[in-house]
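User: Last request for today: this protein with acetyl coenzyme *A, please.
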Amino acid sequence: MNKNSVTIIDNKNNKKYNYPILEGKRGPDVVDMRSFFKDSGMFTYDPGFTSTASCKSQITFINGLEGELRYRGIKIDELATKHSYLEVCYLLLNSKLPNKDELENYDKELRHRAFLHRGLTNIFNAFPDNAHPMATLSAATTALATFYQEHLDDKDYITMANRLIAKMPTIAAFAYRHSLGIPFIEPNIDLSFSENFLYMMRAYPHGKLAPIKDVEIKALDTIFTLHADHEQNASTTVVRGVASTGAHPYVAISSGISALWGRAHGGANESVIAQLEMIGSVENVKKYIDKAKDPNDNFRLMGFGHRVYKNFDPRAKILKKLQDELRDELNLNSKLLEVARAIEEIALSDEYFIKRNLYPNIDFYTGIILTALKIPKSMFTPIFVIGRSVGWLSQWIEFKQDSSSKIARPRQLYIGD
Ligand code: ACO
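Assistant: Here's the final one, the structure of the complex with acetyl coenzyme *A:
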């Protein structure tokens, strides 16, 4: 018997099935169960994919017990503190950091690709003023597929990806400005990726814009980097699922945007601030902690818990440090900070949270920083989208280039009539 294998015994008939163990470079081994149904006539049951590896990947590595996150082998702390978001995009797509010339060319290319086709800008006007920017973002990204139909069969994946990465901040800013009924601001190609986004959010035609501070640009750039990829999370799984059907790549990304919107995923960043505002003051914190612990109450502390991180979320650690650094420079909302600190303190020492390994995740800290950048709550998740687009695109490309990729088509245990 091959030692590097797992044997399953069906106790009903004593039949034995043997499956090879696949060893990755790091992280848990994986049992290759692909032939299980053919061998046994049974399926495996794993709702929520808690024990299922759906692909092989070389992009992002997470060690949830050690709180470790790496993109293409490089630690997130190093990327977030020593490199720009554009360097991270280049790294995710090309498997290496750019040299000086490559970065200059990449930056130039993205600046020039930031503009939207005039036809696409009309789409925003079709939505009601109070449309949530996430819905508009998803619809506009799907609409982009009508302007770049060639990408359906095109093998120039990098151009396809760069085009979307460059346009996503413009789409997000237009969605926001439409929701306020104020004029769209075109991209300014003299500005860097992150500065241009803040400019498109804040400027008025012919108006005088207060200078955008370097600390603001750096903070937003770091937030983009921390969101750039996160291996097989819910929205990425959706993107790969749509990729598996052969649909247009921008439609796959649009589906990822829809999946990210939910409160259990990227939408948590908006819910964290809404929850902190609702709690209102330190005196009320205990009451809400008790609600979160009550098994008969479906209230959850937003920004706490994670499927993979069971020690700490390394992205949250970086953001907490950034929050402390920015506290005075950006005049962070001290009332919200006080409530957030009290929740953190009580939850981290409470048996309920300790037992379940519930720690603050990235979303717990982004809201307060984004509020200080004068970004409204409804734009928190669109900012996550801007950062994550490169991750979804890298995963989409990897899926297409993997000869073992198959259509995503799980099975079921039928319990109906
Ligand atoms: N507050 C209170 N209790 C919680 C919380 C929370 N935020 N999160 C999990 N729990 C409890 C559950 O009630 C459950 O308790 P039980 O064992 O007594 O039934 C236990 O912890 C395990 O929770 P699950 O929901 O089974 O864990 P899962 O891994 O499926 O879910 C998730 C992870 C969705 C992130 C969850 O922790 C959650 O809802 N958190 C709040 C929303 C949030 O912050 N989402 C952002 C995640 S990060 C991201 O997507 C960018």
